[in-house]
Amino acid sequence: MDLFTKSIYSDGTKNYVDKPIPKLNDNVNIGLSMLDEDVSSVFLLRIRNGAEEYHEMKPIGNRGQLAYYQVSIDINEPVLSYHFVVVRKNVIYYYTQAGVTTYVPDNADNFVILADFIQPAWVDGAVFYQIFPHAWGNLYKVIEHIPYLKDLGVTAIYLNPIFSAPSNHKYDCSDYFHVDEEFGGDKALEELSKALHANDMQLILDISINHTGITHNWVKEKRHFYFENDDHSLMGWCGVETLPVLDYRNEELRDLIYRAPGSVLRKWLKPPYSIDGWRFDVADVFAKNDNVQLSDELWKEVCNAIREEKPDAFIIGEHWADCTKYLQGDLWNTPMNYYGFGRILRQFTGLPELFVSRNETLAKVPYKMTAEDVVARTIEHYSKFPQVIADAQMNLVDSHDVPRIHNYEGYSFEKVKAVVISQLLWTGIPCVYYGDELGIDGYTYHDSGFRYEMPWNLVTDDNQYLQLYKKAISLRRNKASFSNGSRLVLYAKDYVLAVARFFKDEVYIGVVSMEESAKTIKLPISLVGAIEPSENMDVFGRSFEGSMNASNEYELTIEPESGLLIKFSCAQLRSR
Fold it and tell me: What is the pTM of this model?
């Protein structure tokens, strides 16, 4: 792909769409930018009432070597689907979210704008923080440490399950309608919710409605709520006998879980608890059982019930693989984004691929992931859903279910820094797993090693992990490039990746290298209208060698297995 085709760019952010979430019947200005080189015509091709319709775009201005085009489009139906057509000499380029082709693409990767979509206001600039409650003691301990969370800069708390259950992880629920007394009971949740909201923080609770624990009273009193094996024993999730699977062919069960006014999912959304959303455990397998396939029907009912109770409730599904069907604006806001972020970054930095490593044969193949792979996998995930969904992706690396990256032998602090930088470079909401910001201890061979007690003794001014996370979170919160901005890959070769995040005249470029030696790369910064930075120092205080070359590229040297995040100046936008 030549430099011109690399330069063709648009997205659904305010850089290119003046109303990212319009009302039905609104008019929306949609833009496109590219190098100003021999372009004769530019069109936006939309789907109106099922048929293709071309709208010619007009040049509106230049920024450096970039030309900007725009057209006004009416939002006549709930979903606007479109891509771009660029005419240049003897070739026609077609541009979708998946990239540029010279053949007519299908509509699977079209840009999509949703009319009247409700995006929770707090998503803008949000940072998630996941807490495994047993590692903190109880909910009153969380309340006690709200000043710490506020100082860290997080804006939304995701709590692993807190409802009554015999285990410390609480995924074996014995009573959905009460908070476990070990964590302080219902009153503690009420007080926690009030305290978080008073400090401008949101609260997401975790639940499994796929199965209960074997100690749930329904096991004895409502046995018909569960699937049975051929021998009439209760079917366990993943073969685990103590986690019996719920059978949603039962209407009473549907009422208790989500339909009735006092149902489980509605109760905790209402005052005095007023939680802000749900994270659903094992959402990928929910209501799927051989010849009883109710998943599509139930997800529609569950998500509709939640939003009927609280229109801006945030819905997270646990799904580790492709879950495009749930991310079209009518179901989940996000998965736990292992597939589009966490699994990618872990493998790129040299760790086992989380799914591949589960297969004994595949795990023996010593493949090192390339930067080209990173880009391709990321595009596969993000190209098939609207910008408003992309903006809300929950981008995590560690969690209660995977080993903490820094606990792997030989995994350096510089690698951790590269991953934290990457959380700023990907579109979506960064999620910090408790204790990562302190360099918490642990081991990698069992999940008990991912769930150590929170090490409050490590909260010191000289903790390099804490300073790294504080700086990164501050950038996410306060710089529009990372909260509202566009994202363009500038370089991806071998084991070096460079990504620009930009908003209007603010540009940051992150470079992540997993090479084993220093590498000099050339960045086409003209593709984002950038100008050489004023100093050779990145935002985390690391110096580097870099300068413009004769080809008007920014040439810099990146050290092995490390990351840089550099603030660039930007050319002024000149109107035509």
Answer: 0.97
